[in-house]
Structure formats: C-alpha cells, structure tokens
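Figure 6 in text form: structure in, sequence out.
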C-alpha cells in the first residue's frame, strides 16, 4: 500500500524538479520501487531518443501563459470557521497538555527536562498556525482585490 502511494507520488511529481525527499527515502530502502522507477526512467529516455520530431524552442512559457489566461484558480480556499476550529484545538491542546495524565507520567519518569522541548514544539506549532492563517488572509485579500480591479476594467 505504501509502495503504491510512493509510486503514485513519484509519477505525479514534476520530473524537471528534484524528486521529493519522502520518495527518495523510500527508494533508498525499497529495492522493488527503486527498480521500477529506474525502468520507467530508462523507458522515458528511450522514447525521447527516438522521438520523430524535435522542438527547437522551449514552449513551456507559452503553455503556462495560456493556462494563466484561462483565469481558472488552482488555489485552495480554507473556510474561516475551519481556521478558528483549528486554532481553538491547538490552543486548548496547549492548555490541556499540562494537566494530561501522559504529561504527568512523563514528568514522573523523566523529570522536568522534557518540558522545554514540549513547550518549544507547542510554541512552534502555534507560530506556524498563526503564520499560515495570516498568510491565507493576505492571499485571499489580494485575490479579491485583483478580481475587483478586473471587473472595474471591463
Ligand atoms: Zn516500495
């Protein structure tokens, strides 16, 4: 099952960019998938070598411009209510972790030395959440601003 997911991810990624770390790590340990990927790359390079025509110019820019001009948005919008729920879950987790039985058990076995890493992780997670939330707000306001300007121009 994991091999299928990895191969799907490998096939879907843009092969002009570096292979994702997760896929590379899997290939390092899974001989079957590594062999399958090598066969695939050999086949593709063989096909490229026998192509009946060769493009002299790079048409990537014109294709990407055509996609951009369709006006279709590929961004994913997260509802504000989902952001609020996620933030409430993170904040309540931070407050409740101090009183959880697991934290008390860990504290009894390892002393207080685990608290600093735990609170660093919690602090990083809430900082990442706030950064993503603010970033999504900025992006959504920009998109709204661009669409309003586009309607005024027409
Ligand atoms: Zn595998």
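Output sequence:
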């Amino acid at each position: 099952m994991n091999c299928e997911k990895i191969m799907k991810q490998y096939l879907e990624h843009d092969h002009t960019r570096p292979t994702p770390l997760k896929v590379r790590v899997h290939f390092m340990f899974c001989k079957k998938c590594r062999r399958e990927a090598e066969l695939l790359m050999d086949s593709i390079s063989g096909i490229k070598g026998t192509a009946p025509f060769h493009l002299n110019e790079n048409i990537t820019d014109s294709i990407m411009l055509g996609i951009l001009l369709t006006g279709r948005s590929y961004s994913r919008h997260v509802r504000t209510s989902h952001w609020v729920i996620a933030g409430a879950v993170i904040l309540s987790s931070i407050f409740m972790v101090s009183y959880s039985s697991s934290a008390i058990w860990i504290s009894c076995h390892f002393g207080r030395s685990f608290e600093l890493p735990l609170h660093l992780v919690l602090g990083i997670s809430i900082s990442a959440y706030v950064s993503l939330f603010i970033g999504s707000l900025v992006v959504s306001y920009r998109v709204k601003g661009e669409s309003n300007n586009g309607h005024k121009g027409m």
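Caption detail: Residues 115-153 form the longest helix (39 residues).
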